[in-house]
Design brief:
single chain, 315 residues, TIM Barrel, eight-stranded parallel β-barrel, 8 strands, binds 3-hydroxy-3-methylglutaryl-coenzyme A, binds magnesium ion
């Protein structure tokens, strides 16, 4: 098995993770989450979305979040921008990367961004031109690449077609997204291999949700065919408001545990990620969805209890 020596993780917890939270999350909490992630070594951070607050109220404080997050050397802060209005907000807020997001199914495109796939590409064109003219990195997401909550099956050709259109817009990176978390390792490899016949692997990234518990396996399957970029979300937070029933993204802690176990560098501090994941889960009043995060936190707790017992016996 030939695997890469280094993988780039884009942490999407503050955006994909929080966008679906039913109760408002305080701006202070969002900012502290970003601070903790950056302190854990995250250098690609998807911080928020400049989308319509009527569609996604949770992201209404995008400008405030952006104004307050630190910018350590080497970090790249990205935001979602569905149209020029969003792009203008992103530029004013100092985003270094903008993300345009289309779908491989017509039905999902209508539900998520209220237009057809073809219309979405025309709407993204001025955003792409403006991003490139301003020296910003441009990333795209191809949603529902492995299945659509409204349409069901999504043909591989649709994924290839939308990816090709994003490449023509000048995207530096194209994320192939399993929005509802139905992909399996075999399908992941078939879809990625089809896309890679047209677009080089180093321009692609994997974005997996974990509804069927397959997301870590899908990361490994992607690594095996040459993908080296992944979106992950701290504590497995996440979901899309327009994809009911889909669970969170693959947890950052789980993916980093996998990658470090394979000897693959990420530049991330797993202990600090575990802390960040436990912290945000406590803030949201629930248990983290990261299996590795919970196991490592429990192990640490047992070690601390044993140390406290040893101290009390000795004294
Ligand atoms: P629309 O209603 O068709 O657009 O929405 P509109 O141009 O008619 O605008 C409606 C109102 O929104 C107007 O306000 C605009 O000014 C305002 P009003 O005049 O009624 O007061 N508006 C905006 N406000 C702030 N920022 C903006 C903006 N644009 C318009 N950028 C639109 C079309 C695309 C705007 C809307 O459908 C939208 O915002 N959709 C966002 C959906 C979204 O964020 N989905 C979740 C992210 S995608 C995702 O999670 C998938 C991903 O993780 C990968 C995967 O897993 O698949 C990336
Ligand atoms: Mg997503």
């Amino acid at each position: 098995m030939k695997l890469p020596t280094r993988v780039t993780i884009t942490e999407v917890g503050p955006r994909d993770g929080l966008q679906n939270e039913p109760a408002p999350v305080a701006t202070d909490t969002k900012v502290e989450l970003c601070e903790r992630l950056l302190a854990a070594g995250v250098r690609q951070l998807e911080a928020t979305s400049f989308v319509s607050p009527k569609w996604v109220p949770q992201m209404a404080d995008a400008a405030q979040v952006m104004a307050r997050i630190p910018r350590p050397a080497g970090s790249r802060i990205s935001v979602l921008t569905p149209n020029l209005k969003g792009f203008e907000g992103a530029l004013a807020a100092g985003a270094q990367e903008v993300v345009i997001f289309g779908a491989a199914s017509e039905a999902f495109s209508q539900r998520n961004i209220n237009c057809s796939i073809a219309e979405s590409i025309e709407r993204f064109r001025p955003v792409a031109e403006a991003a490139l003219a301003n020296g910003l990195r441009l990333r795209a997401a191809v949603s529902v690449a492995y299945g659509c909550p409204y349409q069901g099956e999504v043909p591989v050709e649709s994924v290839v077609d939308v990816s090709r259109r994003f490449r023509e817009l000048g995207c530096h990176e194209i994320g192939i997204a399993d929005t509802i978390g139905v992909a399996d390792a075999g399908r992941v490899q078939r879809v990625l291999e089809a896309v890679m016949r047209e677009i080089p692997a180093d321009m692609l990234s994997g974005h997996y949700h974990d509804t069927y518990g397959q997301a870590v396996a899908n990361v490994l399957a992607s690594l095996q065919v040459g993908i080296t970029r992944f979106d992950t979300s701290i504590a497995g937070l996440g979901g899309c408001p327009f994809a009911r029933g889909a669970t969170g993204n693959v947890a950052t802690e789980d993916v980093v545990y996998l990658l470090h176990g394979l000897g693959i560098e990420t530049g991330l501090d797993l202990d600090a990620l575990v802390d960040a994941g436990q912290w945000i889960s406590a803030q949201l009043g629930r248990r983290s969805s990261s299996r590795a995060g919970n196991a490592l936190a429990a192990k640490r707790e047992r070690r601390e209890e044993a140390r406290a017992d040893a101290v009390s016996i000795a004294s």
